[in-house]
Amino acid sequence: MNTIFKNAKILKTDHAKHNFSIVEGSLAVEGNTIKHVGEVPADFKAERTIDCEGNLIMPGFKNAHTHTAMTFLRSFADDMPLQDWLFNQVFPREGQLVEDDIYWLDILGIMEYLTSGITSNFDMYFFPPKNAKASVDCGFRTVQTSGLNNFGGSIEVVEENYNIVNEMSDLSSFIIGFHAEYTTSKELMEGIAGLAQKYKSPCFMHNSETELEVKECIERWGKTPTELTEELGMYEYGGGGYHCVWMSDHDFEIFKKRDMYAVTNPGSNTKLASGIAPIKRYLDEGINLAIGTDGPASNNCLDMFREMFLMTGLAKIKERDAACVPAEEVLYAATAGGARCMGLADCDCIEEGKKADLIMIDLMQPNMQPENNTIKNIVYSGSKQNVALTMVDGKVLYEAGKFDIGFDPREIYAKANAIIGRMK
Amino acid sequence: MNTIFKNAKILKTDHAKHNFSIVEGSLAVEGNTIKHVGEVPADFKAERTIDCEGNLIMPGFKNAHTHTAMTFLRSFADDMPLQDWLFNQVFPREGQLVEDDIYWLDILGIMEYLTSGITSNFDMYFFPPKNAKASVDCGFRTVQTSGLNNFGGSIEVVEENYNIVNEMSDLSSFIIGFHAEYTTSKELMEGIAGLAQKYKSPCFMHNSETELEVKECIERWGKTPTELTEELGMYEYGGGGYHCVWMSDHDFEIFKKRDMYAVTNPGSNTKLASGIAPIKRYLDEGINLAIGTDGPASNNCLDMFREMFLMTGLAKIKERDAACVPAEEVLYAATAGGARCMGLADCDCIEEGKKADLIMIDLMQPNMQPENNTIKNIVYSGSKQNVALTMVDGKVLYEAGKFDIGFDPREIYAKANAIIGRMK
């Protein structure tokens, strides 16, 4: 199916400068690919022409770290100390999940992504092939990684999942990873490093999320989580860390040397009181940035607009500098940065030949007016309410508040309520 | 006009505990007043019955500090140092505003309030009667205060505006106030204190927003802004401060003794790098809290959902305690706290006899599912996208994305673009 977007403003990405420009015109999607940007030839045939009425077509947001299926624990146990929350509330319920639950809980999360203009996720959770299947069935693009740790999984299963998910669909892929240093034995970490090298894959883990995590790692190994995992050979083909809040000078050097990604999760770091990531320093040192929502149990929402505001806002507070971490860098991290972090370089911007993972932003809303600066408006005053349409792989999955993913929303809500209801 | 809301969940407020409960049933509005809650007598006559389909009716949010008409400077100059922003960007353009501009810029802000479920604002800006007129013409409830300082206004004009706005409409009122200690002479502050006493009015100002402001005040007077203004006799009838970030022990005592309100503005404090307000301590000491968005030049959006998440999230970061400032306290501050701060005790909750300033929250959205805890969902994952309807004074002003305020949105956007366009 081909689609033309006419009367659009189109957001173009300047990768060198991490900046953007806006052109007015039309855009054509052929199958799952952006075919023409700016002008569409008169003989281009499309089943559907969408009149954007001056609204903005831009790349979809990439959610570069999440645990999507944790939707069942959203608002289940909040405003409590981290350890109590994790050990007494989260883990006992996660232990009751069966594989089929994951499928429905994942779809609930995907629906929320679509409302926020998110077109792909980098997901770590139980049963990656089941997660991938949920995404593929909805038409949503997903990158899975393993959450391997001492309490579940094995190197063999990670390798099996790597192959299953990578071969499942063009919409699904798998990057090597594991949960975190503080939950995982050295033997397993060595196995993960071996897989990353065997498959020439980047490698990801939760890294330096809390001060305690780093302190205990240094006590155990005499090294930070970044130092330890780099020495184990995990980053021969790049990769990165989720959270990356408490980083040493040497950690920054390693991230730079290995061309790694710091995936920031400001909503989760805020709600769990983990701290504020050193975003200004990442930018100053030219380290790659991407943004993730983290899971809905810790955030509690899956909203890239909130994350974008927090990424720059928290940095401004931390540095006591209202000028640091400009909106353009934030929007770059939320789109191109995330795509490249997730191995989706063909989804990183609006350009001929790129995948049609794009969204329409309604500029005719009061929070987008006047149009002094559309980039700043998106980052500082944008909201889910502005997402008029979300297209993944050339297919419109969300438009004017309605989903086209093959499931009735009320059925999905009922499933999610039944799953957590079973555990109460 | 009378309205019945049927098949609703209704949020009821427990003022003693700062908590909420939800009852299922119907609600009737007679004219501008809530007439029945829970059950509506069969003989109640209504021109319209709205089927809520299980969605939530709750009190509208109260925006307890803003400069609404600054919409023209939204995204005009961001990511720059505070002084440069204020003196080189904001002040020179504000100097070019004429009274008629305020009217249109205010309506743009009111539209945004309605999309976020905000039913009244506590506004400080030039030409309060013009601001009040814009609100009244839209059917929106407003409380105006004066922004008097050394660069504009006089005690006589403040008094005149006090009477004009209080007498204009049931939708408009005026509370005595002025800009801030750092912009205002002692003579003017004494005049303001005199007015507060003459009219038995609470008194408000920007208070302890930045560390520098407090330091310089102490250098000038040997006192904090709170101490100075209290000694001048401003708080004989209560009042409070906007921002209240950098407070001394004695300041807390004064706020407590005078039953004052700390109006927190976390979005603005974040974006302008002003700091994090001591919300946990306000709660621990039983000091009244309300929430404001501040103006759209500094925030840049007028969204109570963002403010609510930030109020608790930033406190959690500051205290390094994920358990502090629970969602219930945040929602109380955003509704009843704001109403009482603004002298709108008859708009503070859903109860028979209260004004019908209420909103409908769409729970059938993925970010509100599963329904583990609707209060936590509103505060932690709620979004403008969930605002299905906003009613002020018994009249629906916003519903399903459409405004009913007597103005065409495109006309308002054009006016706002023309006003800032004139100054570029």
Please provide a written account of the structure.
- The structure is a homodimer.
- By secondary structure, chain A is an alpha/beta fold.
- Helices cover about 40% and strands about 25% of the residues of chain A.
- Chain A has 14 helices and 17 strands.
- The first copy, chain A, has helices at about 80-95, 100-115, 130-140, 155-170, 185-200, 210-220, 225-230, 250-255, 265-270, 280-285, 305-320, 325-340, 375-380, 410-424, and strands at about 1-15, 20-30, 35-40, 50, 55-60, 60-65, 120-125, 140-145, 170-180, 205, 240-245, 260-265, 290, 360, 385-390, 395-400, 400-405.
- In chain A, strands 1, 2, 3, 4, 5, 14, 15, 16 and 17 form a nine-stranded mixed sheet that branches. An eight-stranded parallel sheet of chain A has the order 6-7-8-9-10-11-12-13.
- Chains A and B meet through helix 2, helix 9, helix 11, helix 13 and helix 14 of A and helix 2, helix 9, helix 11, helix 13 and helix 14 of B.
Q: What tags apply to this protein structure?
A:
homodimer; 424 residues; alpha/beta; Urease, subunit C, domain 1; TIM Barrel; nine-stranded mixed sheet; eight-stranded parallel sheet; 17 strands
Task: Return the CATH class of the largest domain in chain A.
Answer: Alpha Beta
CATH architecture label of the largest domain in chain A:
Alpha-Beta Barrel
Helix content of chain A: 25-40%
Q: Tell me the distance between the termini of chain A.
A: 45 Å
Oligomer: homodimer
- Residue stretches of chain A low in confidence (pLDDT < 50, at least 5 long) are none
Question: CATH-wise, what's the superfamily of the largest domain in chain A?
Answer: Metal-dependent hydrolases
Largest interface: A-B, 75 and 75 residues
CATH topology value of the largest domain in chain A: TIM Barrel
Instruction: Please state the average pLDDT score of chain A.
Output: 97
